[in-house]
Amino acid sequence: MNDKPNIVFIVLDSVRFDRTSVGGYNRNTTPNLDRIANMFRGNSFSTAVAHARYTLPSVASILSGRHPIEHRVGLDKTTLESSISTVPEAFRQAGYTTAGVSNNAFVSEETGLARGFDSFVLKPNSVSGIVKTVGIKPTLRWITNLQEHSAGFTTDAPRHSTAYLLSSLTKQRLKQLELQSEPFFLYTHFDQPHRPYSPPKSWVETYADRFAMSPSEAVDFSMDVHNNLEQYVAEGLQLTEDQWAVLNALYDAQIEYTDQFIGKLFDYIQCRCKDTIVVVTADHGEHMGERGALGHKYALDDALLNVPLVTWGIDPASTEHPVQHTDVMRTLLQIAGAESEFVDGIDLRNETRECAISQDTSRSLEALHKHSSQLDPTQFFPDIDRTLPARTSLRTGSYRYTRETHEPKRLSELIDVNTHNNIVQPEVEAELNLKLDQWLKERQSLGLSTQEAADTDRISAPAKERLRQMGYLEEDLK
After folding, report:
1. What are phi and psi of 193, to 5 degrees?
2. Which pLDDT belongs to residue 450?
3. pLDDT band at 476 (very low <50, low <70, confident <90, very high)
4. Which of 355, 390, 420 is the last residue of a domain?
5. Which partner for 98 in 68, 88, 222, 422 could form a disulfide, CB atoms 3.0-4.6 Å apart?
6. Which alpha helices (H) appear in 31-135, and where do they start and end?
C-alpha cells in the first residue's frame, strides 16, 4: 500500500454489534460485513465502544477525535467549536481531498461537523432536492423500484428508505475522487437502520414469516411505536409476542437491506480505487426491550454502546481489548502521515487500551412520567426519579461501570458484561471508580470549561423537523 492510501469511512446509524453476523447473531443480517472481516487484511473488533448513545455526540467524537467531555457537542452544545481541530482538516492539511455524504442532519454543516471537508452533501428530503443532488437517473431508478428500495407509493415520508439514494451519491463521489491525483478521505453516513423500522416493502414481505401480522399491519404497528415511543416505554412495553416479533424482524430487515449496499460499495472500491482503506462501523446501537427501553435514549450499556467495527487494510494488532472510534481515527491519520496528536486515541497497530469511555448529559424524564405514574425510572439508572444525571461509563473487558459525572451524589452501577446483570463487587467498583476519577481529571484539563454557558440554538427549523421524524426528542435538539 502507498504511503498515503485513500480512506473510506462508513457509518451505519443505530446498529448494535450483537445483531450482526460478525457479532455472532443467529441470523445472517450482515453477510457483507462478515465477508469483509474475513478477507485477507480484514478485521472485526468484538469490543468496539461508541463514545455516546446517539449520533450527535458520537459522530462529533469520530470527526474531532475527542471525547464528549472535551468537545461538549451533545452535552451542552449543538455545534462543534471552531477552536477544535477536526480529522478532515488534518487529512486535508496532509494533502488529501476530503468529501462527506450524510443522510442525518446531526452530521452536517448545521452542527459544524462538515468542517474540513472540501465537499459535503446532506441528502435532501424533497424529491426536487434529491433530483438536483443525486441526479435524475438514480432518482428515477429509485422511484420506479419503490417496492424493492422503499415503502411503495406513499406520501408518508418517514416510511421511505433512502439507502439506495445515499449509496448512489457515495458512489458518485467515489467516481469523482478516483480521477484525482491526490489521495482522498471519504466519510459517508447511512441513516438506516435508524427508526422508524420501515424497510422496503419487498424486505418486509421477505421477513413476514417471522410474525403473524400482515406486512402492512406490521409496518403500521412499527410506525405507531416510532411515533409514540415515550408512551410505550412509560407504560412498560406491554407488547404481545407477535408485536415483539415484528419490531425485531423489521429492525433485522433494515440492517440486512443496508448491508447489501456496503458490499456493493466495498466491491466497487476494491475494483476501482486501489490502495484504499475501508472502515465500516456504527455510531451507536439500539435498545430492543432491555431495561424496558426502545430506541437509544435512556441508558449507557452495551446495547447502545457496543457497535460493529470492521476494517480492511489497517492491519491492526490482534486485540480483545476495548477499541474506540478515536483510536481508529488516530491510526488512520498516522498511516496517512497526518497530524494526529490532537486525537485522544491510540494507534491500533501497536497499542491497546485498558478501558473505553462513553458519556451522556443529564436529561429529564418528565415526558415519561406524564404518560404513566407507574414508571420506575430506576430501570435506567439506580436511585433516580425525575431526571437522569450526567453520566460517564467505563467499559473494560469484563465490566461496565457507570456513575454520575459530577459531584456530589455519585450514583453508580456495575454491570457484568457477560451476563448483562447489575452486580455488587465493592473492590471492583472502587478500582474502576479510581480509574474514572483519574480519566476525568485528565480530560477536564484538556476540554472546554464545563462551566461555560451552553451555546445558543443553532439548528435550523427544517433540520429540527427532519430529526424529529427520526424520533429525536426536543432535549436532543437544543
Report:
1. -90, 30
2. 41
3. low
4. 355
5. 88
6. 31-37, 55-64, 68-71, 87-93, 127-134
